[in-house]
Structures are given as structure tokens and as C-alpha cells.
Amino acid sequence: MGKRKKSSRKPAPKRKADPLDTTFTCLFCHHDQSVTVKLDRKEGVAQLVCKVCGQSFQSKVNHLTEPIDIYSEWLDAADYAAKEEERRALRRPVASSSRARPTGPPSIGSEED
Ligand SMILES: [Zn+2]
């Protein structure tokens, strides 16, 4: 009666004790594992926060939402915000003239009559 060694049998990867808490790399401060995503399925909300730089993000969750979904939503939102800012900056004419820019219509109903 010999014991057969099954070398193919691997122990299942252990999940962390806290499946609802997942950490990610921060998009802003780039610290590893500084971003925590908490899913509150009862309330249907997710809270993402970076413990290093304090960036935070909230989103809705459903029964299929995973922390990584919230994280990628955050990335999208941040990306969108960054692009919006860029767009806004581009839209603004770069008036590098030394003269002050023209100030609206001249003299609107002067106080002195
Ligand atoms: Zn951060």
C-alpha cells in the first residue's frame, strides 16, 4: 500500500481574509497598494480611497461589481477629467501679448451721469 504522490495537485490559491477589501496602485501618487476599494453591496455603493494622497472616488455597485471594476471606473474618470482639463487649457487662447486683454464691451452704463 503505497501512497501515491500526486504532484499535479496544487493547493488552491488562498484568498485574502478580506475579500471586500482590495488594494491597488494609486493613479495619482503611484504608491503600490495604497488604494483601497470597499464594496458595500447592501448599500450599493463603492468607496475608493488612497490612503497616501487621499484621492477618493465613489461609485455604485451591483451584485456583479468587483473592486477591480471600481478601480477601472476610477481610472476612466480620472482619465476623463485629465482630458477635460487638457481640452479646457487648449481651448483657452494663449494670449502672450504684453498688453492686457480687451475687457468686454466698453463702458456699460457709467455710474456718472
Ligand atoms: Zn495616492
From TrEMBL:
It holds the Pfam family Zn_ribbon_Elf1. It is found in: Nucleus. Residues 92-101 have a biased composition (Low complexity). The keyword Transcription regulation applies. Residues 87-113 are annotated as: Disordered. One of its GO terms (biological process) is transcription elongation by RNA polymerase II. SUPFAM superfamilies: Zinc beta-ribbon. The keyword Heme does not apply. One of its GO terms (molecular function) is zinc ion binding. GO terms for cellular component: transcription elongation factor complex. Its main location: nucleus. Keywords: Metal-binding, Nucleus, Transcription, Transcription regulation, Zinc, Zinc-finger. Transcription elongation factor implicated in the maintenance of proper chromatin structure in actively transcribed regions. Belongs to the ELOF1 family. This is Transcription elongation factor 1 homolog. It comes from Lactarius akahatsu. The lineage of its organism: Eukaryota, Fungi, Dikarya, Basidiomycota, Agaricomycotina.
